[in-house]
Amino acid sequence: MAAENTAGRTTKSIIDCQRFGAALVVQDVRMPTITINTTQLQSLLAYASVVQARDSNTYGHMWRVSQYAGRLAEKAGFSPGEVFIAGLGGLVHDVGKIGIPDRILQKPGRLGSEEMALVKEHPRMGYLLIQHHPLSTIVNGVILEHHERIDGSGYPYRRSGDQISIYARVIAIADAFDAMTSPRSYRAVKSIIQACNTLRREKGRQFDPFLANVFIRMALQGEFESIIGHSLTGQRLVSCLECGPVIGSCTPSTRSGIVVCPECGKRYRLHPNGNGFELEWLGEHGQAEIQLETDAMREFIHSAPNHIHI
User: Fold this and answer.
1) Please, what are the domains in the chain?
2) Nearest to residue 248, comparing CAs of 54, 256, 235?
């Protein structure tokens, strides 16, 4: 039985996705107030922390997707409550990867067909994982549908167009952009222009055309410069010289200027270089430690409203 997308259907009554000219029409529909309980929000984000901790290759991914999604939603005219949901969706969209084995989640190269088939189950796994959570109704659409495509060729249910939650359509763009502009072991990083060209080419097929146009304009105007290549505001990322695309978090405020790769344990000294850093290997290994995006979670929880009106 197909899972019910409560958030997607509710949102459809709030945001009318018909386009008139270049405008996204927002209906004036009075909806119930949703209470955001801090403890409940922390417990929901704990699922996302587990996923991130298991894959050091994608450190900062949740924060970046959340930032892209929130800014896109705001620019597209979403209400403050809807912007919050988009940002939250960016943090939790991949919680279903909890059910993906480490040998697949941490595989350095491209996945085989059987491995990819298992990965494609993560939206359903995520939906089932959080279905009884008190905040599930505002994020289940994102979790279930962020790999659906506008043309109906996505997964898991091949939904199309406005059948897909508006939040999932936002996350689909943010998620794809971050994947293209972040290091991966199986391909080179794309420039902003290259990534935008891909978004432009996939409008109406993979991505919502209106939202894609808004996002592309923002990217080309430099509105994402403080997000790309960062794990938090002011915290840039670098690639370990040993692990290649495996990302290590480099915090300029580290007093000693010493960082340790969470994957191989190599110890490096940071040397500022323009807007980034150069790494000097100290010829020794430290203790490889799991990196948690606790600062990103704490920042989001601290800024969360007590109530949202959508």
Assistant:
1) 6-230 (1.10.3210.10)
2) 235
